[in-house]
Design brief:
CATH class of one domain: Alpha Beta
Oligomer: single chain
Keywords: Acetylation, ATP-binding, Ligase, Magnesium, Metal-binding, Nucleotide-binding
Strand order of the largest sheet: 12-11-8-6-7-14-15-23
Shape: globular
Cofactor: Mg(2+)
GO molecular function, one term: ATP binding
Bound molecules: ligand 6R9
Number of helices: 20
EC number: 6.2.1.1
Protein name: Acetyl-coenzyme A synthetase
CATH topology of one domain: GMP Synthetase, Chain A, domain 3
Structural class: alpha/beta
CATH superfamily of one domain: ANL, C-terminal domain
Length: 652
C-alpha cells in the first residue's frame, strides 16, 4: 500500500485465474506464436516507419503513394503524408476486385424480424446511389453530413457514401434529443441531415423525423434533410424544398460513382463524445491512418477468417460501430451481422436466437449487456444452440471478473477465447487486447498492447510508476488511428489530452501493469476514491461486490467524509435475493473478506438499475452527487433513462 502523495493507486483485488488459449484455436490463428507478436511489436516500436509503410502498402489501396509515413509535430500527427486513398474504396471496390463481390457483406435483421442480405457488390451499388443522391443535394468533399438513423443497412450505406465523395460524416446516435442534434449540427456546420421516418424500439415506433424537424429549427447551416422510409409513418411532415425522400433521390440513381481519391489526412468523420462536463467534443478522425488501424486491429484481435459470421452488437452511433461494424470488418472482407433492435425484444433470448439462426462465429458485445443477461437468467441462453461461436469479445467498460466467468462458461462453453478490448473514441480502434490464439487471458485484464501501441503508466509528476501500482494511463508514441483533433477547437484538444503529461497522450483512465506485463484498467482518473490516504480504484471494489452470487451490477463512488477524506458509497443491483438488511450486511462482510476492511463501503444502497450513458457505461459522476446529497451537476444529455436518477434520489 502507498500513501496518497505518491499519486499511485492501491491495488487490492487479487485475481489469479489464467486461461491459456485453446490449442485448437491456436493452430489456425492469425497470431499463432508469441514470437510473431513480439517481432511485430519490436518492429513497430524500433522501426516504426518501415513497419507502418509495409502495413499501409499491403492493406490499403493507394490512388497515389504516400511520401512520408509519419510527421510528428507534437501533439499533431500526420500519417501517410502525400498519399491518396478512399475508405469506401478500401471497404468495397478493393474486395470486389479481389473476387469477393458475391460474398455477403451485411446480413441484416430488423427488430420486427425482417431480413436483408447485401453482398459486397450490392453494397457498392447502394453506396454509389446514395453518394450520387447526396451530390445532387449539393454535397461534396469536406462538407459535413449528420446521420441520425436506425440500425438499418442504410446507416452503413450513408457513412460509406460520405466517404466515397469525401464528405465528413457525423453520426448521431438515434436516441439523442433535438437539442443534442442541433448542438452537433451547429458545432460541425452540417449541410445535410440523413434520417428516417422512425425506428422500432421494443415494438414501439420512435418518430425520428419529428425530432430532426425540431432540431432543424435551430440548425441554420443545414440545407437539406434526406429521409429514409423505414416504418411507414404517415405523420411525417416534409418541408419543401428542404426535405426529400431517400426513395425519390437515392433509389433512381445509376449506382456507379467512382470513389474520389482523398488525401490521407482528409477528415473521414467526426464523432461527438460527451465530456464529463461541458459541451460534447467532436473527435476528428482522418482517412488513411484510421482506416488502416480499424482494419488491422480487426484482423488481429478477431482472428478473422473467410467463413466467419461476425456480429458486433454496438450501434453505429458509437465508435465501436464505426470501427467494428463498418470500417474494420468491411475493409477486411468480413460478413457482418447487423441487428436493429433491443436485446430483450420480443424476449430476453433475442441475441441467442440470432446467434443460433445466423450461426454467428464471433460475438463482440459490452459488459453492460453481459450483466443484463446474467440478471435475466440463464434459461434464455440455454434454450439455444450456441455451438457456432468460436470467439467472444467485450468493450466499453471494465468487465468484472465474475461477469467474465459467466460469459466464458455460459456463452463460450469454456471453449471460446475472450478478447477484452480496451480503447476509446479517440484511439480510433483497439489499443490493448488479448490475441486469441496466443494470449493466456486473466478475467478483468485487457492483457497487452497491440503492435505499435506504447503505453506508459505515470504518476502526477509524469514519472512512470512501478509495476503493480496504478497510475494514469498514457500512450507515449503516436499511432495511425489516433484522433487528429477536436473539431474546431484545437486548444481544447491540447488542453484535454496533451497538457497533463507533456509529450504523452492522456487517456483519462487509470491502469496498472502486473508482473506478467498485463494491463488492468482501473477506471477513470476522476473516479478514484481516496480513503484515509489510500487511493482505490472503483472497479476493484465493484468487482468484489459482483463476485457475490446475489449481485449482478455494482457502482462505487467516493463521497466527502470528515474523518477519512472520502467514504465509499456503493449502489448495488441484485438478483434472486431480497434486498434487505441481512443481505446488506452479508455484502459488506463479503467485500471485507475479498479485499479488506479499508475497501468496505460505508453506505450500500440497493437499486434496480444504475444510471448509464446511452452506450451503457455507468455514470459514476451522477452517483457521486447523489451519494453526497448534492444537486446533480453537469450535462445529463447522454443519460439513458432520466427516471433512474429520480428513483435514486427518492431513495435517499
Ligand atoms: C470503445 C469505447 C472509452 C472509455 C475508456 C474506458 C472505457 C472501454 C474498456 C474500458 C475497461 C475495457 N473502456 N473499453 N474500460 N476495459 N475493455 O468504449 O469508446 O465510448 O470513447 O469510451 O471506456 O474508460 O476510456 P468510448
Amino acid at each position: 500500500m502507498t500513501d496518497s502523495n505518491s499519486g499511485q493507486i492501491d491495488h487490492v483485488l487479487i485475481e489469479d485465474r489464467l486461461f491459456p488459449p485453446p490449442a485448437e484455436f491456436t493452430k489456425t490463428a492469425v497470431f499463432s506464436t508469441q514470437e510473431q507478436y513480439e517481432t511485430m511489436c519490436n518492429q513497430a516500436a524500433e522501426d516504426s516507419d518501415n513497419f507502418w509503410r509495409g502495413e499501409a502498402n499491403e492493406h490499403l489501396h493507394w490512388f497515389e503513394p504516400f511520401k512520408e509515413v509519419c510527421k510528428w509535430n507534437p501533439p499533431h500527427a500526420e500519417w501517410f503524408v502525400g498519399g491518396k486513398t478512399n475508405a469506401s474504396y478500401n471497404c468495397l471496390d478493393r474486395n470486389i476486385e479481389a473476387g469477393l463481390g458475391d460474398r455477403i457483406a451485411i446480413l441484416w435483421e430488423g427488430e420486427p424480424g425482417d431480413q436483408r442480405t447485401l453482398t459486397y457488390s450490392d453494397l457498392r451499388t447502394e453506396v454509389c446511389k446514395c453518394a450520387e443522391g447526396m451530390k445532387q443535394l449539393g454535397i461534396g468533399a469536406g462538407d459535413v453530413v449528420s446521420i441520425y438513423m436506425p440500425m438499418t443497412p442504410e446507416l452503413a450505406i450513408a457513412m460509406l457514401a460520405c466517404a466515397r465523395i469525401g464528405a465528413v460524416h457525423s453520426v448521431i446516435f438515434a436516441g439523442f434529443s433535438a437539442e443534442s442534434i442541433a448542438d452537433r449540427n451547429n458545432d460541425a456546420g452540417a449541410k445535410l441531415v440523413i434520417t428516417a421516418d422512425g425506428l422500432y424500439r421494443r415494438g414501439r415506433v420512435l418518430p425520428l423525423k419529428a425530432t430532426v424537424d425540431e432540431a432543424l429549427e435551430k440548425s441554420p447551416t443545414v440545407n437539406h434533410c434526406l429521409v429514409l422510409r423505414r416504418v411507414g409513418n404517415e405523420d411525417v411532415s416534409m418541408v419543401e424544398p428542404r426535405d426529400v425522400w431517400w426513395h425519390d433521390v437515392v433509389d433512381p440513381q445509376p449506382g456507379e460513382l467512382p470513389a474520389k481519391p482523398m488525401d490521407s489526412e482528409a477528415s473521414l468523420f467526426i464523432l461527438y463524445t460527451s465530456g464529463s462536463t461541458g459541451k460534447p467534443k467532436g473527435i476528428r478522425h482522418t482517412t488513411a491512418g484510421y482506416n488502416l488501424w480499424a482494419k488491422r486491429t480487426f484482423q488481429w484481435v478477431f482472428d478473422h477468417r473467410e467463413d466467419d459470421i461476425y456480429w458486433c452488437t454496438a450501434d453505429c452511433g458509437w465508435i465501436t460501430g464505426h470501427s467494428y461494424i463498418v470500417y474494420g470488418p468491411l475493409s477486411a472482407g468480413a460478413t457482418c451481422l447487423m441487428y436493429e433492435g433491443a436485446p430483450n425484444f420480443p424476449a430476453e433470448d433475442r441475441f441467442w436466437e440470432l446467434v443460433e439462426k445466423h450461426k454467428v462465429t464471433i460475438l463482440y458485445t459490452a459488459p453492460t449487456a453481459i450483466r443484463a443477461f446474467i440478471k435475466w437468467g440463464d434459461e434464455h441462453v440455454e434454450k439455444h444452440d450456441l455451438s457456432s461461436l468460436r470467439l467472444l469479445g467485450t468493450v466499453g467498460e471494465g468487465i468484472n471478473p465474475e461477469a467474465w466467468m459467466w460469459y466464458h462458461k455460459k456463452i463460450g462453453a469454456e471453449r471460446c477465447p475472450i478478447v477484452d478490448t480496451w480503447w476509446q473514441t479517440e484511439t480510433g480502434g483497439i489499443m490493448m487486447s488479448p490475441l486469441p490464439g496466443i494470449t493466456a487471458t486473466k478475467p478483468g485484464s485487457c492483457t497487452r498492447p497491440l503492435p505499435g501501441v506504447i503505453p506508459a503508466i505515470v504518476d502526477e509528476t509524469g514519472k512512470e510508476v512501478d509495476d503493480q501500482h496504478g497510475g494514469m494511463l498514457c500512450i507515449a508514441k503516436p499511432w495511425p488511428g489516433m484522433l487528429r483533433g477536436i473539431w474546431g477547437d484545437d486548444d481544447r484538444f491540447v488542453q484535454q489530452y496533451w497538457s497533463t503529461v507533456p509529450g504523452k497522450y492522456l487517456t483519462g483512465d487509470n491502469a496498472r501493469k502486473d508482473s506478467d506485463g498485463y494491463y488492468w484498467i482501473m477506471g477513470r482518473i476522476d473516479d478514484v476514491i481516496n480513503v484515509s490516504g489510500h487511493r482505490l480504484s472503483t472497479i476493484e471494489v465493484e468487482s468484489a461486490l459482483v463476485s457475490h452470487e446475489a449481485v449482478c451490477e455494482a457502482a462505487v463512488v467516493g463521497r466527502p467524509d470528515a474523518l477519512k477524506g472520502q467514504a465509499i458509497a456503493a449502489f448495488v443491483s441484485v438478483r434472486d435475493r431480497e434486498p434487505n438488511e441481512e443481505l446488506r450486511k452479508e455484502l459488506l462482510l463479503h467485500v471485507r473478506k475479498q479485499i479488506g476492511a479499508l475497501a468496505q463501503p460505508d453506505d450500500l444502497r440497493f437499486t434496480a438499475t444504475l444510471p448509464k450513458t446511452r452506450s451503457g457505461k455507468i455514470m459514476r459522476r451522477l452517483l457521486r452527487d447523489i451519494a453526497s446529497g448534492k444537486e446533480i451537476a453537469g450535462d445529463t444529455s447522454t443519460l439513458e433513462d432520466l427516471s433512474v436518477l429520480a428513483k435514486l434520489q427518492e431513495d435517499e
